[in-house]
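Fold this sequence, please.
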Amino acid sequence: MHNPFVLLTTRLLESLIKAGNHFFVRQTYQRGKNQLDPLNKAAFLFTHYTDYSRAKTHYDTLENDSNRFLYNIAEEAHYRKLFIAAGQPEGFKVYSPIVQQAWKPTAPVAAKIRHYIDQKLKWTPARQDGVKADLFVQFGELFITLKYGIHEVKLPLADIENF
């Protein structure tokens, strides 16, 4: 699975807090788990929010995730636990939904996008006509926007990866 997100570090966490993010939603993040590493127990995504209501809405969408948690940095215990997580505890990977550089699909993802377009969307772009692909995150899930001429479609990245 494609994982474009950066690891959460204490420096990044400090920057996010300084920018006014006081709420963080933790969720299970399968894209971040290395299935080939027996020492990697789990991966988590910590999404930052300045607004409690948006954080709570995200948290509420994760009702089936037993690892979900809503941190409020005003609570000392939450604040300490956030910094523990940002320290990348042994056996765990903790990510932030920040893409470090402009996203460009990897060769395997680009091939799957082309296949999806051919089979599902029936678009027929010429070689010189590029299909624009952009990622966006909603409640911790990666989505892709595909644009070609007047056509546009938004779908979970997993739909393309699993096609």
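The mean pLDDT is 92. Strands lie at 5-7, 23-28, 42-49, 69-72, 92-99, 132-138, 141-148, 151-156.
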